[in-house]
Request: fold
Amino acid sequence: MESTILKSENFSAWFGEHQVLKNINIEIPRNNIVAVMGPSGCGKTTFIRCVNRMHELTNDTRVEGSIFYTKNDIYKMNPIILRRFIGMVFQRPNPFPTMSIYQNVIAGYTLNGASLNKNEKDEIVEDSLNKAALWNEVKDVLHRKGTFLSGGQQQRLCIARALAMKPEILLLDEPTSALDPISTAKIEELLFELKKNYSLLIVTHNMQQAGRVSDRTAFFYLGELIEYNDTKEIFTNPRNEKTQNYITGRFG
Amino acid sequence: MSLDDKLSNVSQSTDMERGILIRKYKNIFLKSLVIFLTVVVTLPLLLVLFYIFKRGISAISWSFLMNLPKPVGETGGGIFNALIGSAIIIGIAAVIAIPFGVSIGVYLSEFRKTKLAYWTLLSVDVLQGIPSIVIGIVIYLWIVKTMGSFSALSGSIALTLMMLPSIIKSTEETLKLIPDTLKEASLSLGVPYYRTILKVILPAGISGILSGVILGIARIAGETAPLLFTAFGNPFTNTNILKPMASLPLVIFNYAISPYDEWHELAWGAAFILIVFILLLNTLTKLAEKKWKVQF
Ligand SMILES: Nc1ncnc2c1ncn2[C@@H]1O[C@H](COP(=O)(O)OP(=O)(O)OP(=O)(O)O)[C@@H](O)[C@H]1O
Ligand SMILES: [Mg+2]
Reply:
């Protein structure tokens, strides 16, 4: 029996008066890749932004219910601490434009004022870039600006930056939607590798991608979690009519 | 029909040729007009610069820079007191204006939708439009009267008010252009908000902020009116900011309206130095924008 790393209970979220998530109950097993699918505007981004408490940074938002990270209610944790356990990769690569590749990777430490010596830094940088499958491509240009890299490389740099903080969970919001097929394939391969040590929650519009990389798939529709099951089950034998319609491309 | 045929057809049609010719003349006409108007406006500007340089350079010498003004009738004399005074007055104004201006700019870009931001922005716009002499009078009433004497400090405060809008605006406008995703990248790494602003957002906007600051300094460097009632001027070198102090624009003003030729010379020399300083600042702005340009 796999252990659960993340669990939401009757979780709802609002933008002003607009309820975007309705009573979400979901359990994310450790060392799994869970894909979040659903038509545009159904609340996928909002859901993962609630998991690392970025949702509350938008004015006039609120949430109800709870999300547990292992045994801890995340809404009772300090968000700054929480975000060190739960890393995030965004839809568009967003390396820090003023920093070199090297500085980008250790940005989580330097920005927090942690003092590391050169060896520790070198180690974190090499290790994280290796995990993000980027080391070989950039090891000779570590001191160039991160923004000089290609889009796919930038996205892997952002993954390395998140991994450098040694998180337990990685949230990815359509991480390949701005990338070409080759970069996408590289990142998918990487996700598979990362699963050994991390639990991944990935939002994707691309059904093939969900099918390829994920163990479990959650289907959201109009703010509700319609169906959540093993990816194979969802794609071959969806229980809910809406899921079926979505997968067969009848809407969305 | 092959392409060659088409082309020869086109060149045979005289109607079309005439059309092209007319357009060509229109083009030439408009271009000449634009160039002519540009020259008409630029030429006087260049002449003014040229004249100041010509008159000014002859006044410049080592003793001009290092001496105090001499009484009427004696030749020589310099503007040492005004140079020191301007440096102090502008320096203090900048030291006050930069932290306030940048903070207000950050506030405006971060909390755009609040009531306070709305009123602040409005006040900044109004402040920008207030004639400098009015600012001088207000500071005279508030500070010079209260403290009982003219002082460099009151001059600096008047200049602070004059340069604040430029710093605030350029900070706000620069930061507004920085994508939110950058802030989120930092926050998602568990970096606290205040550190995110200080270490991610401000460095990303440094070129715009810096150029706003430099342009702000260039703007106040030549201001005379706000200093008339505040720093007042001083024939001696003074470094006490609670006492009246000389400055370049005041020297230019006082000497230019005097009836003495020697003093006119001093005014030309001071004007030259002021202009060179401002040109330098403008060049510096361009360099700063280039050097620290951040590509997202
Ligand atoms: N900043 C915001 N302010 C107000 N409403 C918002 C905001 N962001 C999102 N919403 C609303 O919340 C709902 C869910 O948005 P969300 O971004 O979570 O959708 P999504 O499933 O990620 O869509 P997409 O696939 O297009 O990325 C939408 O109806 C949207 O209009
Ligand atoms: Mg989204």
Q: What stands out?
A: DSSP finds 13 helices and no strands in chain B. The interface with chain A takes residues 113, 179, 181-182, 184-192, 195-196, 199-200, 203-204, 206, 294-296 of chain B (CB under 8 Å). The radius of gyration of chain B is 27 Å.
